[in-house]
Amino acid sequence: MSEFGGMDELLQDFLMESSELLSDVDNKLMDLEKRPHDHALLNDIFRGFHTIKGGAGFLNVTAMVNLCHRTENLFDKLRNGELQISSGLMDVILDATGSVRDMFGALSQARQPADADPALIAALDAMLAGEPPTAPAQPAVQVLVADDTPDWNALYQAVVPQAAASSAAPAQQAVAAAPVVIAEVVTAQAAPVPAEAPKAAKPAPKPSGGGNSSPPSTQENTIRIDTVRLDMVLNLSGEIGLTKNRLTTLRTEILQGNTGQNTLRSLDEAIGQLDLLVGDLQNAVMSTRMQPVGRLFQKYPRLARDLARQLGKEVELVISGEETELDKTMIEDLNDPLVHLVRNAVDHGIEQPADRIAVGKKPQALVQLTAEQVGDHILIEITDDGRGMNADALRRKAIEKGLIDAETANSLDEKQCLQLIFLPGFSTKDQISSVSGRGVGMDVVRTNIQKLNGRIDINSIPGEGTRISVSLPLTLAILPVLVVRACNQAFAVPLAMVREIIPIESSSIQEVSGRPTIVVRDEILPVRTLSSLLGWEATQKPAFGVLMQSAERSFILAIDSFVGRDDVVIKPLQNIRPKGVAGATLSGDGSVVLVLDMEDLLNGEGNSLIGNRLHELISL
């Protein structure tokens, strides 16, 4: 039973508007820390909190009113010059915004939130009384160290380029004295974490309050749509209705025997008109699902700031391309991978200020998060100017961990070596820490990106930094595919993976290490026959090869023939999805076409169970 009586609808409106307002306040607080004398910024923040307090008061949310009132008074003193911005004061303010966000969580379940932490209230009251700011904080880094602590000095030497390693002696000495380390360290970017932050660093907000920069993601059931887009959908629906009436009239004439040239021409024109209108309507409906990625990105400045404070680092997160639009469902599913990538950049990619100064860098590091539309894809990039990754060190580490054999490792080029960090287990997990925070590795990040039909790439220069690029389709609702045929059955493969189609001749196939390969423009590519991937017996020799590029490999998919390009709507297969199948769609003739999950299929190559399940599925 709701505690808000008949005000549930008002509560939902308040939560939607206030959550966006609070995120905006968080971002402006990040700017205020850089521009403490910007009175216009202070006024905007003051009005934001005042608005949240007013809505909470209307709904009788006493705990939120009390907290917001104190914070609002604090902003008023800042506006009047009675207080000055400092790191400690900002920590307490951010802890207050985190507590308000926690209260939103209780309100979303139609419950009255509990009072704010008494320590937070006491800190706010102390600052209002003119006392020095002290954040109600826990220790900046809480670590559980396993019994078998690895030699982190050796690990640092193995991973960081030698030029940078010599300048990191102070940090290494600190670790030798007290081996406190961070869990889930991506081996290629791992660096020792000092047992104590530099003395200049202030305590950070506790994760449960102000540190709540990345709360558990929840699916939103509402979406805001520009009325212009809805008007377009409405107008197109009316046009389709008129065309339907025209087709109904023509159908009646034909059934009555009127099959003259004029009637058939009118029928052809009406069908052509309907085809155009349906395409326009489809695009218009898809546009109603598109949302700016800025709604997602606005969470990350706070996250980067809090984590940098905990680690005693100086980091500026610069965001651009917030207006770029992406499917709402994809935005929600993209949050966890991006949180992990931003954390990785700050935690593992960026050096301590002293180490940066030693190699001639500015003490404040720069992390950039950008988004832009490139063709029919969205490109999101996370770039840092940190220590970078050493491809040779990655290769050696993968061999040491037994993830790949020496022969395979030696055949990898530099780009393929960087992709090794996506292998399951390619991380140090002897220690556990709350700083890195989400319990997922880079292999899970890549898996989540691939579920969105996207791809992730890495470019890194030792000593200069790393750039991680995520390419995603504009929407999951419609997927561009290439329809191919194997064993007299049509299949669809994602067009995003297709580079080109080439004819296959027996003379062009060469055996390398017992495996068929084809040389394409001086690049040796393995050949994978689609029928063998499916576990089926080939009915003919493949005539064409589809040169495909996945996240970590290039290969040629040998097929019998191809039908062509198409844009399809994927229908999920409930309870009967076999390995290697992403879903199904209908072709123009009404037959079922299975959409293949190539990564999944490659991992189960030749599995007869796959083939048997596909036969059962196709025969349904």
Automatic annotation (TrEMBL):
Q: Which PROSITE patterns match?
A: CHEW (PS50851), HIS_KIN (PS50109), HPT (PS50894)
State where composition is biased (Low complexity): 193-203
- In this chain, the stretch annotated as Disordered covers 193-224
Question: Which SMART domains does this chain map to?
Answer: CheW, H-kinase_dim, HATPase_c, HPT
Residue positions where Phosphohistidine is found in the record: H50
Show the catalytic activity: ATP + protein L-histidine = ADP + protein N-phospho-L-histidine
Domain HPt, residue spans:
3-107
Domain CheW-like residues, every copy:
478-607
Q: EC number(s) of the enzyme?
A: 2.7.13.3
Where in the numbering of this chain does the Histidine kinase domain appear?
235-476
InterPro entries named among the record's database cross-references: Bact_Chemotaxis_CheA, CheA-like_dim, CheA-like_homodim_sf, CheW-like_dom_sf, CheW-lke_dom, HATPase_C_sf, HATPase_dom, His_kinase_dom
**Do you know which PANTHER family this protein is assigned to?**
CHEMOTAXIS PROTEIN CHEA (PTHR43395:SF1), SENSOR HISTIDINE KINASE CHEA (PTHR43395)
**Which named protein is this?**
histidine kinase
